[in-house]
Design a protein that fits this description.
Layout: H1 3-7, E1 15-17, E2 20-24, H2 30-35, E3 54-58, E4 66-73, H3 82-99, E5 103-107, E6 112-115, H4 125-138, E7 140-143, E8 146-149
Parallel strand pairs: 4-5
Antiparallel strand pairs: 1-2, 2-3, 3-4, 5-6, 7-8
Amino acid sequence: MSEELIKRGLIEHGLIVGNYEFYNIGDTTLNQLKKYKVIPNKDYKEYGSRQPDGLLVDRRNKENIKVILVIENKDNGKFKSEKDKINTIEQCNDVCQVLSADIGIASDNSSYIWFNPNQKDDTSPAVKEMLMKTAQKNRKVKTNNLTKNY
């Protein structure tokens, strides 16, 4: 049972935003969200325990729920390093991929990085730029479970 959904009154629906529902959460797992029909009913395997910080969901058709947007927030203030940004983007991207979301947002509440998790290339232009900067420092960068040499 998700106490967060109950406490915030999100059992029936999220905050209505046009045709969509917004869930400002962070302590609710994908498996719990599935149980309450917030996200599609499928096996999330090892990602079932992930806890996205925010979701924008189209639940007009309960048989075909569509996740539009996934948000991953870190502590207030600036990302401590480029590596922090990359880790946050990767964490958000993982959840975006498993939920088939259209948009991902990684944030530290002072800067926001929007990206397309469905881009055919393995990384978005914003992530590539950060990877290049980090790679120049480290010469090796981990992204999407692959190590890339630059």
